[in-house]
Amino acid sequence: MSFAQPFNLLYGIFLAIIAIFYLRKKQAAEYRVSWIKMWDEAIVEEAGLNVSRLRKNLLLVIQLVCALMLVMSSAKPLLTKGEQEKRVVIALDGSISMNARENGVTRFEEAKAAAQEYIKALPADAAVSLLLLKSGAEEYLRDAEKSRAQKELQALACTSDSLDVQKAAAVLETYPGEKVVFTDKDLDFGTTSVKIGGRLDDAGITGASFDYYSRTLLCRLKNYSDKGKTIAVKAEDDWGGKIIGRAYVPAGGEQYISFELDRIPDMVRLGIIGTDMLAEDDSYVLPLGDEYKTKVVMIGENPYMEAALKSMAEIHFEKAESFDDITKTFDIFVLAQKQTTVHLPEECGVWKLYPDEGDCGEAFDHAVLLQPGNSSMSSGLVLAGIYADRGCFLKQKEGFKSMLLADGRPVMICGEENGRRQIISSIDFSKINMVMTPAFPVLVHRSIKWLSEGMAKSLEANPPQTFVTGAEFLDRKGSARKGAAGMNPVARDVGRMFALTAMVFMALELEVYRREL
Questions:
Q1: pLDDT tens digits, 363-405
Q2: Looking at the domain 293-452, which fold is it?
Q3: Which of 168, 240, 472, 493 has its CA 20 to 30 A from that of 200?
Q4: Which CATH number is 83-198+469-493 given?
Q5: Which phi and psi (to 5°) does residue 136 adopt?
Q6: DSSP state at residue 364
């Protein structure tokens, strides 16, 4: 028998204290008698006292047993019943680096073969769970037979996701029994790990961006090898134009290659020239055409905001007088008039230039100096001498950060509410000198970019900007012991049985007490 809360057994100390007080003897008293024959009566009385003492001791025993049962119940006893069952969790790393090919075989295929051999060596009655680790952890089987686990394992396919280490570790901790992870990474999940492959010899594209004003394309490269190398990249547009650029990238480092385009195409395909262990991160598609841009609509009139949005060539901007005039789908709504958001789509970004009444605090009609808030969108902005002379202070909202402050109180905030990213402004841009400085278009550009994150449109799946390779190590203190045994008894909580026994002894105590009376 084991206990889920063994420290509760310390309550048993009070049982000894109760017994000491219960059995404490009274001091004998001396009495004078006038006739010695009264000793006969005293002897008879003493015999009666002995019987009474026995009854009192019986009550003591019953009460101690009753209290002991309650102490045992509070410790949550677990009773092992039957034979122990072999339970094993097989987890395969299905992230992008497992697509690396060595000796003509991918690491994922090698991991599946190793997992098949591991399952084959398990006892015939073993219960096998099967997981695929990637951006999340997908369960394929739970406590299945060996034959079924081997069949399902064969059908697993690798992905191009980046491995979310924290999610994978959290999911693994929820499974009992022996856990075995087949991966090419040096990660400690508190489990038995089977290392697949060695150092990743790879160079990949981790991102790309385009400046519409200078028509400059930037391609970001990452060298995952332990040696520096010169990487050649080809940029090809949808009109057939090709440009080749080269850059030296040190071991484990990053570098940019820039391309100057004569015109703006609808899309550009980037590709690394040459082969390495991992082909999945050698290409990247960057959509540039108007149909792929973030679509922004402003409802109402605000000439300063309109001018700033029109200067952003990377978005598609339109105006509307009201929701009734909107006939297209937009990604971001800039509300330049008091407007309800009930008509907005579920997945969009919202910028309210006029806050709701519930968001407003104290109003001000005098000049107040503006300062940057704690949001990254306002960091580094030059706001010396920038003021607003009409508006209101905003109330603090849970999950929101301040973008601009006035007298230490927020006048522009950003955050997520009801699944939407939102920016709320309470200052009148027609009454602020910020619109005449470079800080205003920078703030608008950053804000639209933040609102549009996660809405970027691509023609096909691009490799993740960052992903875990074989060189990282996760230190998970307090996790399960590495190589823990997989024999798990079927445990039954018997705490209720102890509590029921205590109730039976309480009824017995009452019966003994009644008979004494």
A1: 888 888 999 999 988 888 888 888 888 789 999 888 899 999 9
A2: Rossmann fold (3.40.50)
A3: 168
A4: 3.40.50.410
A5: -135, -160
A6: E
